[in-house]
Design a protein that fits this description.
With 437 residues, the protein is α/β, with parallel strands linked by helices. It is built from twelve helices and 13 strands. The N terminus and C terminus are likely disordered. It catalyses: Exonucleolytic cleavage in either 5'- to 3'- or 3'- to 5'-direction to yield nucleoside 5'-phosphates. GO terms for molecular function: exodeoxyribonuclease VII activity. It is found in: Cytoplasm. It is an enzyme of class 3 (hydrolase).
Amino acid sequence: MTSFRPEAVEGQAPPADSVHPRESRNDAPTSVSRLNDTIRGFIERWGSVWVEGEITSFNRRGGNVFGRLKDLGSDSTVAFRIWSSTLARLPKDFEVGDHVVACVKADYFPRTGDFSFAVSAMRHVGLGEQLERLERLRVQLRSEGLFDSRRKKPLPFLPHCIGLITGENSDAEKDVHRNAELRWPQVRFRTRYAAVQGDRCVPETLAALKALDADPEVDVIVIARGGGDPQTLLGFSDERLVRAVAAASTPIVSAIGHENDRPLLDDVADVRASTPTDAAKRVVPDVSEQRAVVAQLRARLTGRLTQRVLHDIAQLEQLRSRPALRTPHTMLTARAQDVWMLSTRGRDVVDRRLQAEDRRTRELRASLRALSPEATLARGYAIAQVEGGGIVRDAAQAPAGSRVVVTVAEGAFGASSTGAITPDDSPSVGGPPAGHA
């Protein structure tokens, strides 16, 4: 039954804005705005509720988040929005696939007829305390310098063998092999399988890491697995594994999850790859790119050598074009007269010097001959020497019976002294008797 309205006129429908939705009929419909206002008033009485589900959409627009939450046991979904003021108070690691509990309040917009839930609180299911412990561990490891870029080891340009730690028959293993072999077909792998989640993840990964790090042929180690929610990635934030990676002597690449996944292993590894595919691109060079680089360097080298040879040829031609090198005999001809004059002058100087020295030699020889005892001996004089003594200058030096050596101009002979004689006893010009001095 409809209520009486004074403005209603018999045979004429009342205005739509004046008809309550519950009183509307075919000849007296309500308006859209009145319907939306009624729905909004009804929804506002619901209040806030806690709901559990999986995030299937999480889009940021203008500082706000618009997403959808899916029921864990069915395909039912609801839309939610997180205003920027609320988002600033929530953890920063929410993403698609997370299992969460959210406090939501129904909201209806009369102007557009859109229905959504405004989130006032949200947290990961079962991860609250674990995430807090991980954040404390992250702060501790950072303070110890394990995240410092200066301690991280560089990757080899072209590893001879790549160590791979991943799940057996996993997509991550296939991605790493396929992309690495596409980039460098001769690449070799040494794979150690380990559980990538659950209780066996940490001990099996530690054992694989120890074996590959001790292998002298392994130049780099890649730890890879596909994406997952924070709960399944907890093993890669274990303190034992993180410290073992920091202590390893072989460079290690972390390829855990997708771009938004961030376990502690990513921070301590020498290189963090966003995906297993990205890890393959980081550990081996692209053979086509390297061939292009080699071709470019070869072309540059050829160009530089050609330029240098042409420059040297031009320099040589310039030198050869100079008169001294173009007709070198001209320089010799011009200097031949000077050489002849100098040689002639040198011969004259030498001849005059030889003649002067010859005259001087003859003069010295004549002087020496004049002063030499030989000249005196040649005039008939002799030198008498007592045997075993000196030259006889006094007759007393040669008493009778003494042996005397007499030196004349042509040789010497021995004589026996008869003692001193008087001037009257001197021999004639013919000389003393033979055998007497």
